[in-house]
Design brief:
This protein has 112 residues and is an all-alpha fold. It has one domain. The protein has four helices and no strands. The longest helix is centred in the first third of the chain and has 33 residues.
Length: 112
């Protein structure tokens, strides 16, 4: 009976170790998934391309009467370039949020 109890305790300790490793791996993956620098290093082309495409799409949607018209100057006088930059940043953030949600959904502990 004593050997069986010792064996069960040993198995419990092994499982605790496995769970601890899985938890640390999950924490690492979530930390990387939420770090925009890591994501940009892993996927720079898609992030920039998506930001550009969203910016172009927003410019097309917001143009008046379907015609391309320049952005009106902003209050600080920076005009079109600043508006395009803001649109690209919003697009990049939207893509990052989408990638973050996808990563969270796909994160699963590794079987031991």
């Amino acid at each position: 009976m004593g050997q069986r109890a010792e064996q069960i305790e040993k198995e419990i300790e092994q499982e605790r170790g496995n769970l601890d490793r899985n938890l640390h791996e999950l924490e690492h993956r979530v930390r990387d998934a939420t770090n925009w620098r890591v994501q940009f290093q892993k996927h720079p082309g898609p992030m920039l391309g998506t930001a550009f495409a969203i910016g172009v799409g927003l410019a097309a949607v917001t143009s008046r009467n379907g015609k391309k018209t320049p952005y009106p100057p902003s209050r600080d006088g920076s005009g079109e370039a600043w508006q395009i930059l803001k649109t690209a940043i919003v697009g990049a953030l939207a893509k990052r949020l989408s990638m973050f949600v996808d990563e969270l959904i796909s994160v699963r502990p590794q079987p031991s």
